[in-house]
Specification:
single chain, 360 residues, mainly alpha, 14 helices, 73% helix
Length: 360
């Protein structure tokens, strides 16, 4: 009786049976995991038989087998339309893994090599009196310089970028808005060394100021500004126009609508964009080499004298080439990653705190 029911085709309104390709069975829910395990086994076996020593090659073979087996199994059991859909999903998953695996490998390597020198003394001492070839010393002076320089750059770039994005979305019309958009697009692709040379020419050579953390912050703000503008502009465009129209219909001035309705609605995306911009500049070395010069001493004044930074410290220690300097470089890289992650968490916390509350 059950077999007879399974063989029956759905009947359309006109009395004709539906095509068999639309009523065939489907793959079980565990099929993608099973196909993935089979593909990994076959990829490893194929790589071993062919004598391939790179695990990356084994992974690529497994990825190709996963896509091919998924299409074949779906085409046989289901239909070609569903097979194409599953292949598209499989390609998305493969690309996701190809992007995540190097990131996880990088984090694993940095943690594994960075914890060797990372301790309380490393975070609380500078390199004053320590030669690069001997053990000891710390990253305090570089961490302090990075915090001050990034904070100053954010204080310069975030308000300018936010106001520029508000102008482009809420007020920008005509040739001026097009010109601003064009220059923002151009600034997005400016190399960091060009920003450093610009500040060096104007601030140091023409105006006569010496090296300082503030000079480096101005160059970093140039790199940060277009990222803030673009991300904020996209977030403001996602705010529904109905919210603006409802507030304007109540007689609220436009500037107050932007301040009280538009910006709070988009604050989560804006905070994320600012965090991405901070991550963009936190690892820059070229402007710091040109404008801040670097030092082994602690300089807490970003407006006078040379300073260090984490990227410059990593480059200096890695350049030495000794075992102790390599350990310090990896430990400083771990500190830099933790610094960016903490900023990301803080930005998300602020966005959640300031976001408009939803409820019944």
């Amino acid at each position: 009786m059950s077999h007879a029911l399974q063989d029956q085709r759905p009947v359309r309104a006109g009395g004709s049976a539906a095509p068999a390709g639309l009523t065939r069975g489907g793959l079980p829910r565990w099929a993608p995991a099973g196909i993935g395990a089979l593909s990994i086994a076959l990829g490893c076996g194929t790589g071993a038989v062919l004598g391939l020593h790179s695990r990356i090659q084994w992974g690529l073979i497994a990825a190709l087998l996963f896509v091919g087996i998924t299409y074949t199994a779906s085409a046989v059991v289901e239909n070609r339309r569903q097979a194409k859909d599953r292949v598209a999903t499989s390609v998305v998953w493969v690309c996701f893994l190809l992007a995540v695996i190097p990131l996880l490998s990088l984090i694993w390597t940095t943690i594994g090599r960075g914890v060797k020198a990372l301790d309380g003394d490393f975070l609380s001492h500078s390199m004053n009196g320590i030669t690069s070839f001997e053990k000891g010393g710390g990253v305090y002076h570089a961490l302090l310089g990075t915090i001050e320089q990034v904070a100053l750059a954010t204080a310069i770039a975030a308000p300018i970028g936010l106001l520029t994005a508000v102008y482009l979305v809420e007020y920008g019309r005509g040739s001026l808005a097009k010109a601003v958009t064009f220059f923002v697009d151009v600034m997005t692709g400016i190399p960091s060394i060009v920003a450093g040379l610009f500040v060096l020419t104007t601030w140091n050579l023409m105006l006569g100021f010496g090296p300082s953390g503030f000079a480096g912050s101005m160059a970093l703000s140039i790199l940060m500004m277009p990222v803030v503008v673009r991300s904020t502009e996209e977030m403001l465009k996602l705010v529904p126009n109905e919210l603006r129209e409802a507030a304007l219909a109540l007689g609220v001035p436009k500037w107050r609508v932007i301040l009280k309705v538009v910006l709070p609605t988009a604050i989560g995306g804006i905070a994320t964009g600012v965090t991405l911009a901070v991550a963009r500049i936190a690892g820059e070395t070229a402007p710091i080499m040109l404008l801040v010069f670097g030092t082994q001493l602690i300089n807490s004044n970003p407006f006078e004298g040379a300073q260090s930074s984490l990227p410059l410290y990593i480059w200096e220690q890695y350049k030495v080439g000794s075992d102790a300097s390599y350990d310090r470089a990896w430990a400083a890289a771990l500190v830099l990653i933790a610094f960016v992650m903490i900023l990301n968490l803080v930005a998300r916390g602020i966005a959640r705190w300031k976001a408009p509350k939803t409820g019944r």
